[in-house]
Design brief:
Elements lengths: L7 H7 L14 E4 L2 E3 L7 E2 L1 E5 L2 E6 L1 H5 L7 E4 L4 E4 L1 E6 L7 E3 L11 H14 L6 E5 L1 H5 L4 H8 L5 E5 L4 E4 L1 H6 L12 E5 L5 E7 H11 L4 H17 L2 E7 L5 H11 L4 E6 L8 H7 L8 E9 L29 H14 L3 E5 L2 H14 L2 H4 L5 E4 L8 H7 L2 E4 L8 H8 L10 H5 L4 E3 L7 H10 L10 H8 L1 H5 L18 E4 L16 E6 L2 E5 L7
Parallel strand pairs: 1-6, 2-7, 8-15, 9-10, 10-11, 15-16, 16-17, 17-18, 18-19, 19-20, 20-21
Antiparallel strand pairs: 1-4, 2-3, 4-5, 7-22, 11-12, 12-14, 13-14, 22-23, 23-24
Helix pairs in contact: 8-9, 11-12, 17-18
Length: 549
């Protein structure tokens, strides 16, 4: 089997201190006769794992591990099945459903023309009691259609507040009733980090963009009953554990720290959840409220880190770029915050010694972040903090050495790699060899972690990462993709001494897979599930295939 090549710097960062491979007492559980990918660079492959309590006590051959078993040890015959460390989804968004959903067209990424959206809204309004929210997901065709947005949406549903959302979360289109319900009037000033769209005469046109969309999403979600958030975490746990996901890092744009803590306690899911604060600078007291929320809401959850959204995405041409967009001459995108606010965000992280996650997509945004970090403190002060660039699509070759020196972590989302090639060519003027670097990131010694930020299926995302449709030269091997989803995702949350690898002393978070993700044809990868998921040595999901109970 091919060994996973690890850049020397990354290998040195992620090596664990030696732990005695065998335990004096018999293990509680042994998994025998498998194909175990440990994600541990010192021993990538094994056949068996022994668990006592919450932790792994041995990894080795079947014969080595079987000798440790005692009369009360549970034995699970893997039958050659593949075992991996539990997937750690480093960037997800967990939230409840709001309003009455309006289906505009089938598929996970709808992109109907605005006329079709209006027809769907009109039909939904006819069968929905007056005054109830209608929510539809749209794509770029509806976003780019500037023909009388507000008036046409008002005409389609005059008696309902209507919100058109995009799956990537940076844009809302509201009708007049929805604007009124959100407290947005002609006299409203743009909130810090976002803005309200206006027509040529300066009147509201219904667009609510960037951090303004987050402000109002949070206000609307706050009107929901508390059980809605608990149901969202419960549903997350049910889905994730069946997919072999044992940790989710939740970017909490739509809920407060207190709401997240209450919901996690009520949900009672065995899934590990890292709640990442998202204090909106437009809302006074937000940061203090997050600080006052519990640091450990439940035994398997933690609140740590802060996220800020510094720019938009290439989709709506709002990622801040050093060169103009090819399909909008002279336009380079825009920063959500001015440079002095970016400096204040980074200075605060440095003062608090706290990890900060920065949504930074455009190369101008990333260059500003790196230059500001350098201006504030030496590299040695930043490396322990592991500042994260979320998405970082334009962390280009000239920026990678600085990112490495500063200890920056890139958290990419493989579903983003599947943007339509025609859209990428239109935005940037043809194929872009530096766009969304993966292989180059690893070669430069910058840690690369994966999160979903879209379809949650990690094996669908492994397929995307090993294809990289828009930039095949940057595609990863399957081993590299699984490492990004396990070992480096743990590094990205300062948890590499607890999880992310299958090695003695580590938490027994692992998944036994329904098929061998390292050898099946690429198109078969999305069909992978977990037949047995352990979290802290306990069975969190069992498909009743292996007789683990």
């Amino acid at each position: 089997m091919r060994r996973h090549a690890v850049p020397p710097l990354l290998a040195s960062l992620l090596l664990l201190p030696p732990v005695a491979p065998l335990a004096a007492q018999a293990p509680d559980l042994v998994l025998l006769g498998g194909k175990v990918f440990t994600a541990d660079s010192t021993r990538p492959w094994a056949e068996a794992v022994a668990v006592r309590g919450a932790r792994i006590v041995a990894v080795g051959t079947t014969a080595e591990v079987e000798r440790l078993a005692g009369p009360r040890t549970r034995r699970v015959a893997l039958g050659g099945r593949t075992v991996i460390p539990g997937i750690n989804d480093a960037h997800d968004h967990v939230g409840p459903r709001f309003g009455v959903p309006v289906v505009t067209e089938p598929g996970p990424e709808p992109d109907p023309p605005l006329a079709a959206v209006l027809d769907s809204v009109r039909a939904a309004a006819a069968r929905t009691p007056k005054g109830r929210w209608l929510v539809a997901y749209v794509g770029m065709r509806a976003v780019d259609d500037t023909a009388s947005r507000l008036a046409r949406l008002d005409a389609a549903a005059p008696d309902h507040p209507v919100m058109l959302r995009v799956s990537w979360g940076h844009f809302l289109q509201a009708n007049t009733r929805a604007l009124r319900a959100m407290g947005i009037t002609e006299a409203s000033r743009d909130p810090v980090g976002g803005w309200y769209g206006r027509d040529a005469a300066g009147r509201l046109d219904g667009r609510v963009q960037e951090n303004a969309a987050m402000v109002h999403t949070r206000r609307l979600w706050a009107t929901l009953p508390p059980r809605a958030f608990a149901d969202a975490y419960r549903a997350l746990g049910d889905e994730a554990l069946r997919l072999g996901i044992t940790t989710v890092q939740d970017m909490s744009e739509g809920k407060s720290g207190a709401a997240a803590a209450r919901a996690l306690r009520e949900a009672g899911t065995p899934l590990r959840v890292r709640v990442v604060a998202w204090p909106l600078r437009a809302v006074p007291g937000e940061a203090a409220a997050w600080d006052a929320s519990p640091a450990r809401p439940t035994p398997t959850s933690v609140r740590s880190g802060r996220k800020y959204m510094l720019d938009g995405t290439p989709l709506e041409r709002l990622a801040a770029q050093r060169a103009p967009y090819a399909d909008r001459p002279g336009w380079r995108g825009r920063l959500n915050y001015p440079p002095d606010t970016v400096r204040a965000i980074l200075a605060e992280a440095l003062r608090r010694r706290e990890q900060v996650m920065l949504h930074a997509v455009g190369d101008s945004t990333i260059a500003l972040v790196l230059a500001t970090m350098r201006a504030l403190a030496p590299d040695s002060a930043w490396r322990p903090l592991r500042v994260r660039l979320e998405h970082g699509d334009w962390l280009t070759g000239d920026l990678l050495p600085t990112a490495r020196a500063l200890g920056v972590v890139l958290v990419q989302n493989p579903a983003h790699l599947m943007l339509a090639p025609g859209l990428v060519a239109a935005r940037f003027g043809g194929a872009q060899p530096g766009f969304q670097p993966l292989r180059s990131t690893l070669a430069a010694g910058v840690p690369l972690a994966f999160g979903s930020d879209g379809p949650r299926n990690p094996f669908l995302n492994v397929m995307f990462a090993t294809m990289h449709a828009n930039n095949p030269a940057e595609a990863l091997t399957r081993e590299q993709a699984v490492v990004a989803y396990t070992r480096t995702a743990a590094w990205a949350e300062h948890a590499e001494r607890e999880k992310g690898t299958l090695a003695p002393g580590m938490l027994a978070d692992l998944a036994v897979l329904s098929q061998d993700v390292f050898t099946v044809p690429p198109q078969a990868l999305p069909g992978t599930t977990s037949v047995l998921t352990l979290v802290g040595g306990r069975v969190a999901w069992d498909a009743k295939v292996l007789g683990a109970r």
